[in-house]
């Protein structure tokens, strides 16, 4: 489902095993699933399900915090798989969108509200038209750390 959401903005996803990862490849995003966010994010006073940044070499790096996704899925009665797909797409969005910041609505809203979680449950939490750019291929590395 993450592939479907990213397909909306013209991004083709190719999942790769860590062993197939070409270090330094510009189009690779490294996505890591962690059980919980780090302490600095935890103390923000709002639930953080993921984060993303670029390394000094330009590699996109994203994290999704699985335990937080599960908790929010339960709280808002959303399928964990659907919410995970949205959280992953949101973080990858930060790395591939022409305007990579948060938007006032849609998948790239900084903090999803109850209506957003309902949309996620229906598979309708997507990128808005603003900030989209024509397709670029992004390769994702699966990794567990
Ligand atoms: Zn964000």
Any overview of this molecule?
This protein is α/β, with parallel strands linked by helices and 145 residues long. The chain has helices spanning 2-7, 39-42, 66-75, 80-96, 114-121; strands at residues 12-16, 28-34, 50-54, 60-65, 137-144. It has one domain. It contains 5 helices and 5 strands; from the N terminus they run αββαββαααβ. A hairpin with a 5-residue loop joins strand 3 (50-54) and strand 4. Helix 3 (66-75) packs across helix 4 (80-96). The longest helix has 17 residues, at 80-96. The radius of gyration is 14 Å and the shape is globular. The chain binds zinc ion (ZN).
Please bin the fraction of helical residues.
Answer: 25-40%
Largest sheet: 5 strands, mixed
Radius of gyration: 14 Å
- Flag low-confidence runs: 141-145
- Tally the structural domains: 1
Give the SSE order as H and E letters: HEEHEEHHHE
Q: Report the end-to-end length measured between terminal Cα atoms.
A: 23 Å
Fold blueprint:
Layout lengths: L1 H6 L4 E5 L11 E7 L4 H4 L7 E5 L5 E6 H10 L4 H17 L17 H8 L15 E8 L1
Parallel strand pairs: 1-5, 2-4, 2-5
Antiparallel strand pairs: 3-4
């Amino acid at each position: 489902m993450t592939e479907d959401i990213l397909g909306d903005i013209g991004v083709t996803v190719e999942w790769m095993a860590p062993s197939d990862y070409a270090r330094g490849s510009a189009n690779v995003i490294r996505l890591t699933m962690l059980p919980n966010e780090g302490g600095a994010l935890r103390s923000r006073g709002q639930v953080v399900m993921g984060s993303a940044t670029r390394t000094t070499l330009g590699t996109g790096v994203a994290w999704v915090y699985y335990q937080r996704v599960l908790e929010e899925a339960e709280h808002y009665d959303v399928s964990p798989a659907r919410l995970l797909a949205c959280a992953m797409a949101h973080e990858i969005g930060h790395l591939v969108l022409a305007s990579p910041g948060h938007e006032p609505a849609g998948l790239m809203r900084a903090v999803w509200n109850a209506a957003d979680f309902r949309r996620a449950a229906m598979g309708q939490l997507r990128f808005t038209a603003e900030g989209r750019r024509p397709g670029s291929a992004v390769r994702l590395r699966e990794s567990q750390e």
